[in-house]
Structure formats: structure tokens, C-alpha cells
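S.,

Sequence below, as promised.
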Amino acid sequence: MEKELRREARGEFFPSQWLQFVDANGPGFAQPDFYFVRPDSVLCIECKLTQHPVAWEQLRGLYAPLLEKLYARPVVCVQVCKNLRQEIGRASCRERV
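The prediction came back faster than expected:
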């Protein structure tokens, strides 16, 4: 997937970049799968074999706030998965993007 994303990159491309932060729990690290820094936004992509709500928790609860603080622009989050889970459904994917 990295090869395809790198080829289609619009903006600076960061695959598996470690981010260091300090919050109420002390020092921590985060590693989004991929993100692109564009002039007006950051696109953050989390890849999973099977669609999972944990990916959204990571994207919205950790990666988006860190990237917004780091780059001072809005973050668009995308979960890319090969297999969709029936109980989550395709409609909720579109609603969350």
C-alpha cells in the first residue's frame, strides 16, 4: 500500500512516522500508518485488514489531535481496510469520513 500512496502523494508523505507527545498521563508515542501534509489539511490513514472501531478511536482520539497541534490545520481521517465487518456496515463508513 505504501508504494501506491507514495506514487499518488499530494503533499508531504509520512509513512509510519513516530510522534512523541506529553499529556496528562506523561510522555507517550504514537505511530499513524500514513499521513500527508497538504497546504490546507492533513490526511491521516490507518490501515487494517478488517474494519474495526479501534481504528477510529486511534484516528480521532490520538492521531488527529496530535497532527492538528503539530501542523495547525484540520485533519481528515480515513480507515482503509480489506474486509468490512457486517455489524459495522458500509453506511457507517461513509458517515464517518
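The mean pLDDT is 85.

Coffee later?
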